[in-house]
Each structure stands twice: as structure tokens, then as C-alpha cells.
């Protein structure tokens, strides 16, 4: 505050009064900006405001009788020195307030609207006025006269004022008008559709996350009622159908959403919401639950049509955001009713038909139908909110009709609530079918494509064209070319497959016919130069009782071939027969007679080894009285019988691998695929597993991929080397070593000074040998298989039977020697490193 003129008693009284009434402190909350006890002008007040912007909320200038105007730089209506003496009992003060701190213009109001004064300003004004009145009412006329006019203090006629009359100043706003639009407003009736929509969409995201997580980890699982067993992709290979898989997920989603909907309805009843109290429990629960099931089907569809998990999350959260935005509009049931106007134009009709396939549209309409009857709602006729009535089962079948008055009068007639229930249930069926169908069709899901309305495929399925199947698929199959060389193993295998195919020979194992797989950069088979060919026209036949080992470097196509044969991938071209079943049309039958040990262990850490085998034995149809026997036999073969009741999560990597092997052999399958089965095992366990695999192949077809060349050489009846998506050579281990290796290896150890003599003598004894290395007194020479007889000369030398004296002394300079056959690893390295593969 500031004082212009002399400081008088009433000013101090006013300051004390204002501080007391408003709970303020002098010198802290109330400060004097002009010098105390000095008669000053308004310059000090103005200078402080200018040098300290936005530091003062309210300023007060008190005017006394001895003040005179000095300048006009500030507008203060306090010119008491120019008034006649008899008017000097008028008390004057001016209030300044910082209007930049206040909200200047209400939201969306016109620019010409008056600015509102701060309520603190009005309160201060009232306090000052009351203080002035209170001060003067406490003194008699003589004292008041001295205070107001010292020069005329004895003029009784002028000062004829009754100051003892107590007066109080009060400020009060005009009362607000009664608002009939908000009185009785029910937020549950008006916006409840949005609030109860959110928990169901949270479940939608939960299911999406779980399914995409298993997709990312190559798992397939779902929760069966009252079971904690999780179903995975491994089970799909072991014979579980797509329908069963998605049915299990529907049970999982149904239970999860059922619990959520039950809590929602019970909460509505507990909090006494009209719509829940006046509506039968069954109607509200069924309405929310059916809607949640329809949203669940959309979550399944999204996980199937997305190419990878990143796209799946993007689409899922994008759908969630779109649904929330749409629900802002659909929550208002009049918006839904507006789409059913009788005079609706083309766009409104199109929008209504588009919404038919959107579950939340029917959800919002059903909620609006129920809320309009049972909840508090605004009555246009009465222009107020009225209470709802009891909602009965009969109301489900009542048509909904009415009139709009804005923007123009028009009538509307909506389907009954029961029809909306039916449409909601219909969306469940449609999206469930699309989910199962897309699980087969979309290539990103890596399943066998089954296209809609494929008449040829339908005829094949019922057996009409079964005998001509390969004629339709392979019209260009002809008799082999006569110029194929007998030693060319890949072409010879192709010749054998075609001959068996033309002769309609029975498939007792696996027959692969012109199989190809291309990973396209773009979906729906669009071909570009950036496509990757994983398999290129593979011909191969595996007989019953045979173990075939597939060798190849990483990315050669081994896992792709196994995945196609097990049904996890669909071939781009060609087909394969397994025990007479075609992989393109009869994969379900194939998986029922097949066991798989995948490259990576697909196990549940919470389950024991016994529980794993029990689950898969049930899936494979093992008789109940034989389940325990087979479980114990399988676990004994892999040396896990003593820990069969321990959780798999506590196993080492090698022990988990053995569980996967036991699972692949459960149920006595006719075909077993093993993708690197002994990875992570110690040498002792590896030997035991080799013995187990040798016993398994007696009456089965076993296909094994491995990076361990010794394992392939020990176990395999035939070995296939794959490189660049093509077969490079096929044959028994001995055949491959004889035809694709350098032959036998002769290792000699001698002194460094005798190396040259020994090398010359060896060339004389074995003319066809080739010196590979001669460092540090060690000489390594290879002898081709076709010149194996030349080794006889070397043996005679070492046995002192040589007749040529020039090489007789060779034995005397050789300290040690050894003869070995080439290994499969050498064959593999030679074939895969060659610039031009042997075909």
C-alpha cells in the first residue's frame, strides 16, 4: 500500500482490521511502498510497480486531507484539497489490482465480454469499507471532528452526523439459475457404455500379448478349463488340430472375460447403479460376455494376419486406439439411433451397414437400449431427467422407435435389442471362422494354405481325384534322360523318385517330389529379385526302417525342409508323400503318426518330465492302461527315470534335450524327425542317445539333422548334404567317403633331414599318392580309393618284403606311420567349399 498525504489514525486502524479479518501479517503480507512518516507523492508507488513486475497482487493508495496533486502520471480520484471545507469528512482510497494474473477471457467466449474481478479484490474492498465504518463509529463527534477537519472542529451544524450508528458493508453475487439439464444427471446411463468398454479392451490386449508372445517364441498354447497345461506349437506338430487349438484359446478368453464381466455386473449392483439394479442379472452378464467374446475373436484374427510380432503389436494397439475413439461417439445412443432415420441419405446408410461387422457398435446399441429404459434419462417432452423403469425379458423383443426434432423432424426405427444380441453373436461366428481360416491361408503364419471354395481341393479331399493327384500336380513328369551318369547321386535319386511315381509304387516312408520353398519379400506370393530361395526342386525318397542324416551349414535349408515335412511351413511348389499321405491335403493324418524333436526345446518349466510325456501320450492316443508303461520306458531310455517328477525348469540343457527326444518317440510314431537331437549333451549321454536312436529306426523312418559329422557317420544309413537350398550328394557314409573324398590318408613321421628322401621313396612306392603336407618331419599323403592296391608296396616295405633296394631303406628312416580313411567332415568341407558343387 501507499499513502499520499499525511499518515492518519484511521489508516493504521484499517490496516490492522484488514490483517485481522483476512489472517494476514503486517510487514510480511501487507507492505508499505512509500516512505514511512514522510509526506510523499505517487512516484514511489509507481516506481516500485515498474521495477518489480508481477510481484504485487493488490495495491491500495490511501488519500489524506493534506495531499495536493503534483503530477498526473497515475489516476487517483483523491483531490480532497480542492473540495470545500465542509466536504472534507469524505474518506478516499484507490485499489489497484494486477489484471495480467487473472484469466482474461473465458474459454470460447466473445472478445467483448466484460472481465470478471478477482474475488480476493472484492473481499479486500469489503474489509476496507467495514474497517473505515467501524473506526468512525467508535469515536464521538468531537474526536471525529478532529480527525476529519481540524479547522472546523467546533462547527456543530456541519458535523451533525451520528457516527455511533453501526453500518456493515457486504458484497454478494447474484444467485445462479436452476439448471434442469444437469439436475438428476446419471453418468452411468449417459457414459457407462464407454466405461464398461475399457475393461473388456484390456482383456483384448492381454490375449493379444499372450498369443504374440507364443508366436515370437514359436509356441502355441492355450488354457483348458480346470487345467494348467499349456498347449504349444509342438503339440500342433504332434497331432493337435488348428480348430482344437483355437477352441482352447476361446475357452481361455471366455473364462477370463467371464470373470471380468461378472465383476463388472456385481460392482454395478453393489454401487446401486440404476441400470444394473433394474435389469436382470442374466441380461447384463450375457450382454457384456457375448461382446467380450466377439472382441476376443478379433484378437485371434489380428495375430494370424500379421506377418510378425512387431506388426501384430502395432495393429493391436492401433485397433485399440480406433475403438476408443469410435466409442466416444457410439456411447451416445442417440448417435446410434440417428443412423436408423427413415430419411437417411446414402452416407448414413453406408455408415450403418459398415458398422454391422463391428462388435462395439452392437454393444453400444444394446447398452443404450437397456439404459434408456432402466436408467435415468433425459426426457425431451418434460425437459428434465426422469427415473427409469424395470427392464424385463419382454423388452428384449420390443422394437425401438422415436422422433428427432433436430436438425429437422424425422422418425427412426431401430432393430430390437434381441436382434442386436443376434448380430453380436453372429460376429463371434464370423471372426472365429476367419481366425481359423487365416491360420491356414496367410503365408506369414507358415501353415498349409487351404483356399476358400477350392473345388479341386474339395474333390481331392473326398477321394474323387486321389488316383490322379500327381498327374494334376506334375504334368511334365517324364522318363529320365538317358545321359545321366550313374555316379551322379542327386540325379540318380531324382530318377528313382520319378520312376516310383510313374509306377505308382507304394510309399513306405517319405517321398519328396519337386519340393521348393521361396520366402517372398512381399505377401501373397508377389515375386521380386529380393526373394530368397530356401529349397529348389528337391527330389528324395526315404525307405521304411531307414535313418537319413541331413548335413548342411547354417542357412542351407535343413530346418526349412524339416518344417515343411512336419507341417509348420507350406511348400511354394511340389509336395511330399509320407506313408501314403500328402502333406498338402492330409497333414492332420500325417501328424497323427509323426514324432518331432525340434531344434530348440519347447518345454514348460512348470511341468515335470512325467507330465510332459503324459500330455503327449494322450494326444497320440496311447491307451490309458499303457500310458505309465510307455512313460517309464521312454524316460529310462534317456536316463531321466530318477528325476521324472522334478520340474523341467530345474533341468540342465542336456536333460531338457533328452525330454524332447523322449517326447518325439512317445506313442510309437512311424516317422520321427530329429533336428540336432544331441546338442548340449556330454559324451557319455550322447553315446546312450545314439544307441536309443539306433533302436528306434528298426521299424520307423528317422530323419535327422546335425552338425556333428561323427554322429551322422555312426547313425545314418544314408547321408544327404544340402547347400544353397539344393541337394549336393546322397549316399551311404562309406560311399560318400569313397567317391567325394581324397581316399585314404597315410601319415609318416621322420627326421627333418630325411623328409626329402622319404617323400621321393613314397612316390616310388605309391605312384598315385598326393603329398598334402610335409612340415616338421610329418608327411601326410593321400591315396585315391581306385589305387588302393598300391598300398601293398608300402606294406611290403614296412614288413621287410620289398625287392627294390632304392626304397628298402624307407623303413629305417620312418619312426612312426599310420593309415586312416577320410572322414565325413572332409567330404562335407570339400563339397560345400567347392565353387561348383558336384551334381
Automatic annotation (TrEMBL):
GO terms for cellular component: membrane. Keywords: ATP-binding, Membrane, Nucleotide-binding, Transmembrane, Transmembrane helix, Transport. It is a multi-pass membrane protein. The keyword Protein biosynthesis does not apply. InterPro entries: AAA+_ATPase, ABC2_TM, ABC_transporter-like_ATP-bd, ABC_transporter-like_CS, ABCA, P-loop_NTPase. It is found in: Membrane. CDD domains: ABC_subfamily_A. Its main location: membrane. Residues 510-749 form the ABC transporter domain. GO terms for molecular function: ABC-type transporter activity; ATP binding; ATP hydrolysis activity; lipid transporter activity. The chain crosses the membrane at residues 193-212, 224-245, 251-271, 283-303, 315-340, 418-436, 448-473. This is ABC transporter domain-containing protein. The lineage of its organism: Eukaryota, Sar, Alveolata, Ciliophora, Intramacronucleata.
